[in-house]
Amino acid sequence: MLLTLPYSVELAAQALQQNVSQPQSMNNTAPREVTYCVDPDWAPYEAIRNNNHVGISADYIQTISELSGLTFKLVPTQSWEQSLAYVQQGTCQVISMLNVSDFRKQFLDFSAPYFEAPNILVARSGTPILQGYAGIGHRTVGVVKGYRQVEYISRHYPELRLKLVQTESEGLAELARGDIDVMVGSLLSVNTHINNQKIDNVSIVGYAEPFDSLAFGVNKSSRDIIPILNTAIATIPENRKVDIYKQWNNVQVRYERDYFKLVVTTCFVLLAIVCLVWRNRTVSQFKRLTKQKNDEIESLQTTLLDRNRTLEFLSAHDTLTGLYNRNHMIQKAEEEISRFHRFHTTASLIVVEIEVKRDCRGELSEFDRENILKQVASQCLATVREVDIVSRFTGEQFIILCPQTALDAGRVLADRLVECIDQDVLNNNTKMQVSAGLAELKESENFTDWLERTTKALYHSKRLGIAKVSVAD
Predict the structure, then answer these.
(1) Using one digit for the tens of pLDDT, what is the confidence trace for 117-153?
(2) Which residue spans traverse the membrane (predicted)?
(3) ω into residue 44 within 30 of 0, thus cis?
(4) What count of other Cβ atoms lies within 10 Å of the Cβ of residue 155?
(5) Which region holds residue 198: left if phi is over 0, alpha if psi is between -120 and 50, else beta?
(6) Would residue 83 be called left, alpha or beta, if left means φ above 0 and alpha means ψ between -120 and 50 degrees?
(7) How high is the pLDDT of residue 308?
(8) For residue 281, what pLDDT is reported?
């Protein structure tokens, strides 16, 4: 028998007594459109069906839209990984339902949580109850790629053997076939998939920490909508939350068929062929051992591939801001110079530097400095074009490589960028200043020469004053 696990859904903010039919009580301004992405295959929490958003998050978004006056526009995606990539790139401003993690904090800010639910461990029937991840032992664990559980297990239980799957539905199918031993999933969605796929040979064997505390993830460039979302979340009536939960809680108690008579008959048949079983026992054991070793090798290869990808990402990106690092920028600049020599396509280089004024040094803490650098990085990504390459070149120095960009167009981009940083990030801070230098690539010039000319223009901007852009000779 597959049993449901009890749990409670509690929000951090206490619901106020307010009628949902009054949508403009909290926001008297004109409606603002917010683009958002969802996990397309995580029913009943959320899913995309015929390009329509359905599920628990869809009902909460509708309620929050009525309470806040925000208008939400769905950006359809094909997978959870694509949704995360879209919100990181700014293709959508908000991702509707996800947990907070250290990696996601690099490019997202989070609202207050509005839905909580347990994660569970599912295994084939006959598996004993498991005391969380610590009780899994040498079993192979299936986890959906991109879910927070992958980051959590890798950090706190690195000895576990993980196998990443694309969706919970795919993971349950592999569990039923015996390709994995344990599947980690969300209670409501796992039961939905088990019922839809009519899987009879699996059962829930334990809880998986931590439980989901689901909130909106907001691209840092749109962080101003978080107070609006938090206010709306705090004012959702309790009866509305209960109605949404009842509507989508389709967890059922399922009973297995009684195969007792069939088992008894089979035992009598097996008595007749016991000699043949004994003869083939050694061969079967050898095959099982071979399959187990092959599975271990495959798991190790998967783990190695994932770690290589992680190392590749870290080798090309700055750990604080998430921008490209110095080495990657030099590589891209050399490629652009090579393209310039072959096809005579122009290119421009912008150097932006944030610095504390001399008379204010020592007044800015390391935390404030790092926070400002992160904001500058986000502002650069939000201001430049998709073809431009942004890197943190040194401590407070950022370089923007603008392929196929003439000097005039580069000057427009540099002026806009410096103005945005000065007004939106530094807020005309009297302790700090931003300056920029700009240079167009010349014939027979290598990257070092190009960067030197641009840096000289930057120093000239510093001498001119705050928020100035100078063009190299």
Answers:
(1) 888 999 998 899 988 898 888 899 999 988 888 889 9
(2) 259-278
(3) yes
(4) 10
(5) left
(6) alpha
(7) 84
(8) 84
pLDDT at position 437 is 95
**Confidence class of residue 410 from pLDDT cuts 50, 70 and 90?**
very high
Q: Residue 360 has what pLDDT?
A: 59
Query: Helix or strand or coil: residue 335?
Result: helix
Polymer length in residues for the chain: 473
| Amino acid 428: pLDDT | 62
User: Identity (one letter) of the amino acid at 25?
Assistant: S
Q: Mean pLDDT in the chain?
A: 85
Confidence band for 54, pLDDT divided at 50, 70 and 90: very high
- Quick one: CATH architecture of 1-256? 3-Layer(aba) Sandwich (3.40)
Identity at 157, one-letter amino acid code: Y
**Parallel, antiparallel or unpaired: strands 432-440 and 468-471:** parallel
pLDDT for res 86: 94
> Rounded CA gap, 433 and 359, in Å?
12
Please, is 8 exposed, middle or buried when counting C-beta atoms within 10 Å of its C-beta (0-12, 13-18, 19+)?
A: exposed
Domain boundaries, given as residue ranges, for the chain: 1-256, 261-316, 326-471
Strands of 176-322 (E only): list them.
182-186, 202-219
- Render 365-387 in DSSP notation, one character per residue: -HHHHHHHHHHHHHHHHHHS-TT
Is domain 326-471 in CATH 3.10.150.10, yes or no?
no
Q: Helix, strand or coil for residue 226?
A: helix
**8 A C-beta contact, residue 393 and residue 333:** no
